[in-house]
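[audit] Reproducing an earlier prediction to check determinism. Same input, same settings, fresh worker. If the tokens differ from the archived copy the diff job will pick it up downstream; this log only records the rerun itself.
[audit] input (224 residues):
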Amino acid sequence: MIDDAIGSFLDAIGSVDPLLRTLLAGVAMLLETSVLLGLAVPGDTIVIVAALAVEEWPWWLGLIGAVVVGSLAGESIGFAIGHWLGPKIDAWLERRWPSASARWRRTERYLARRGGPAIFLSRFLPVAHSLVPLIVGASAMRYRRFLAWTIPACLIWATAYASAGWLAGDTYRELANRLHGAGFVLVGVVAGFIVLVWLAKRVIARFEARHLEDEPHERTERGL
């Protein structure tokens, strides 16, 4: 039964024109990385679903390219909005959304402390990847430096998710006619990747949180 369900699901995805499917994934990433839309648009899920239907390596490369371009476009929009409206957004959050304002200021301290590496790592952290471009735009960091750190992060992220989806879908197609329950293989590959990503995010988040936690202690020691 699971084979039939997954087969129908893959057929539905595969029925979408590959070019349109690739462009939609890029647009989804633009929306995810623009301002705070990443809180509502599940870009990682969309990329994996699009990759499940990839059958040839040129479309795999095309999907990676679309995801990277979409991510950079969205982050650039966030950077521009932060550059022009950052102080106003900060003030509005402080009045209307105190918890978000606290997250904003915490991220500001994080960026001031870690600089470029914080931009790179934020691509792999929930919420932060939507918030960081906005805050960096409101800071004194130049756009070129921002791009220098975020481009490799977007490339790694896009390659990982597109590859996981392609591997899962391709493995299922190879086994579907020879192995009963091949659908479980697809689910296992995707689930395994998601677990690895979750663990990696937890490790990165805990490691980076130490830098924020150490800041007050360092300031006290310096007499600040």
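[audit] rerun output stored. Observation attached for the diff report: Residues 214-224 have pLDDT under 50 and may be disordered.
[audit] end
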